[in-house]
Write a structure and sequence with these properties.
about 180 residues, alpha+beta, Pyruvoyl-Dependent Histidine Decarboxylase, Chain B, 5-stranded mixed sheet, 4 helices, about 25% helix
Length: about 180
């Protein structure tokens, strides 16, 4: 029987691209992120048990051109001048290595980088907190809930990877991406 495909490592990256066409602006965003030479397969939001976060440089060194690579990818595009766009990835890692964590992805318009960072971390941490049975008030601000999550001892780390940009002044397509890229 074949061993199940469960990633052992993940790295995070982000990118920005601008071009006359939307597709080519996406390609340039992938290039900026360093992941344009892979066949990317979008997956959902589970951070595998025992998975380690590694540097982008180390992760890229383990991949080869044309390889099918699984990733959680957020993407946002616009051709409206000065429109603020963003793409973000959040991560919440449980204290127990045997427990899975969560990766969130979000794309939006009009959201600053700091708001996007807070939102994607909040989304991932809240998803994990609900599976771990951590009691919290959803109406409280994320900063307050973040303290509860960490004080519970069940969530040890959160992080985010975000790219924001304003739409090109001349109307070129502008694309932002953020990705969590899995490595075997």
């Amino acid at each position: 029987m074949e061993e199940p495909l469960v990633p052992k490592e993940v790295f995070f990256t982000h990118g920005l691209g601008k071009h006359v066409t939307r597709l080519q602006s996406f390609e340039l965003a992938l290039r900026d992120a360093g992941i344009e030479i892979y066949n990317l397969v979008r997956v959902s939001s589970i951070f595998p048990p025992f998975c380690k976060v590694i540097s982008k440089k180390r992760g890229l060194s383990k991949l080869q051109a044309g390889q099918i690579v699984h990733c959680v990818l957020a993407e946002s595009s616009t051709n409206e001048p000065s429109r603020l766009i963003g793409a973000g990835i959040g991560l919440a890692v449980p204290a127990s290595g045997e427990q899975y964590g969560y990766i969130s992805e979000h794309h939006d318009c009009g959201m600053t980088e700091s708001r996007m960072r807070d939102l994607v971390e909040d989304m991932a941490a809240t998803m994990l907190a609900t599976t771990l049975g951590i009691e919290f008030d959803i109406d409280k601000a994320y900063d307050e809930r973040k303290k509860i999550y960490h004080m519970s001892g069940k969530i040890i780390r959160t992080r985010s990877e975000v790219q924001t940009a304003e739409g090109d002044k001349k109307g070129l397509w502008t694309t932002t991406i953020a990705a969590a890229v899995f490595v075997k």
